[in-house]
Amino acid sequence: MAIVQTVALTKRYPGSAEAAVDGVDLETREGEFLVLLGPSGSGKTTVLRMIAGLEAPTEGEIRIGGRVVNHLSARERGIAMVFQSYALYPHLTVYKNIAFPLKAQRVPRGLHREKVERAAAMFGIGRLLDRKPRQLSGGERQRVALARALVRDPSVFLLDEPLSNLDAKLRATAREELQKFQKQIATTTIYVTHDQVEAMAMGDRVVIMSAGRVRQVGTPAQVYDDPADTFVATFLGSPPMNLLPRGDLLVGFRPEHFRPATPDGPAAARFSFRVELAEYLGAERLLYGRLEDRPDAQEVVSRLPSYLPAPAPGDTAAFGVAAEHLLFFDAGSGRRTDRRVKP
Amino acid sequence: MAGALLLLPATFYIFALVGVPFLLAIFYGVTDIKVASDGYEIVGARNFRGILASPTFRLALRNSFLFAVSSQVLVIACATALALALQEPFRGRRAVRFLILLPWVAPISLGAIGWKWILDSIYSVINWVLAAAGLVNPMEPPMWLGEPGLAMVSVVTVHVWRMLPFATVVLLAGLTSIPRDIPEAAAVDGAGFWRTHFGVTLPMIRPIVLVASLFGIIFTFTDMAVVYILTRGGPHDATQVLPSLAFFTGILGGDLAGGAAISLFLFPMLLAAALLMLRVARRSEVT
């Protein structure tokens, strides 16, 4: 068990003007499931690789369990990592793959079988121990990679998009299982993904990154309901938050909060919404259209549960947003602001 | 149809330059033909019995194995070390890679003549250095090409020097084809340099190593360039190998039938090695 901390962690690649990772300060909590979320190129994998010791930081410090580990090699850091490709050793059987870290760390030979079998049983791959990786399905390979990472009780567990090579159905079950295992072993875990559903579903806290910087750290509810800036506000949620320019401010509200206004409802903002396109998605309906009563006829999206009656394309209806769901951002910096403006 | 047409020139060349001499060698091997004779008689296996009884042939056979196996073992060991070193990024890596390729692209006769001077009994720079370092008596320097044991060592060394670039390039290509994740996973799993390479990356490229060494063995068994230029098989046949013996017997000695029998002797074994190589190459495509 250990806390991982990064202080002003920076990575610059030679020949590139922009820093890939730019002064990242992070601190996990004991046994926490921390998710690094961001679009590709946001530096999240580079942060993970620096923590693992696979890449040297240009500046800044990495601490594991309070100890600065910058000068330690990957093998000396006592961490386990699951790679996006799983990186199984193709010439070794599943048993030997899982036993590899034990051998490498000189765990007494007599303990190998028991430890390997326990790790394999944990992921339900006990019957695959004699197979080679190429004889396994994607889901089985992923489990072997997890078993190999967990077999030696690491102090920190790093996962680099471990679910991205699975098909959608398998991904949902794997997500659930992974979360259960993490709670069970209670090892500090850092998980990198570009999939916001994974981040929201699994993370105790989510770190949102863009262009090498941390934009916000918080629980899934915090980053979704209370985004620190327009990047976080629009990166999370699908479809993204509606943003209306009003002077030097931006007014934001989520599509699900933009709903038909009842005549006596307490809506803080009322709009005349002309629907141009409707998408029926089963549980919900997305309505794309314009705010007809505003001078710029802004395009907005509404997301309604499909059991609610909705205006058809071509119709205009009264829509509103409750006061607590209106967020205000500075148009220049994109940061949240206490200033208010009429939507 | 167009495909067959395009294959025709290559097929013709292979038949004319490999097929005809090969069939001719089989035919000569069972006759008593000489360079100057105007007739011949079929003598069956007499030539083969004859060469088997000849001490020179048996020495050359032993030398051939010694030469091929020892040089290939050295080539693979050195090529592995070089490929691992050249895989790491360092300043001047391109220049070093180019220099290592040089012995391969330079004509062997040129390189071997250079070596002939390096190993010369009077002008040897090696002896000069050893004498200056006080390691050998300058009045009685080692005769690199003149003493049976040393001559074999010299011939093997030069052949290793010659074969090394190709094997290095093949191994380097193999190592480069391993996804970067795998050695990284090994590092995170706690493996150091030796375990990463001897436990993971080298076993992964084993089929490639095998093909490279089979290729090297076949090539070495059928090649006589280094031996011919450096020692002409001497001293006292100490470095005589089958291809050089076949050449001296059949072409320079005029005994076409004897030379053909010698050159055919290893054919079944090399054919088996070549088939094995093809098999390994085909299997190694499946990763």
Annotate the secondary structure layout.
The complex is a heterodimer of chains A (343) and B (287).
Chain A: E1 4-11, E2 21-27, E3 33-37, H1 44-52, E4 59-64, E5 67-68, E6 79-82, H2 94-104, H3 112-122, H4 138-150, E7 156-160, H5 168-185, E8 188-193, H6 196-202, E9 205-210, E10 213-218, H7 220-225, H8 230-235, E11 242-246, E12 249-253, E13 259-260, E14 267-280, E15 284-291, E16 299-305, E17 316-322, E18 327-330
Helix pairs in contact in A: 2-3, 2-4, 3-4
Chain B: H1 2-29, H2 46-53, H3 55-87, H4 93-105, H5 108-118, H6 125-132, H7 148-176, H8 181-188, H9 193-204, H10 206-221, H11 225-230, H12 242-252, H13 256-265, H14 267-283
Helix pairs in contact in B: 1-13, 2-13, 3-7, 3-10, 4-7, 7-10, 8-9, 10-14, 12-13
Describe what is shown at a glance:
The complex is a heterodimer of chains A (343) and B (287). Chain A is of the alpha+beta class.
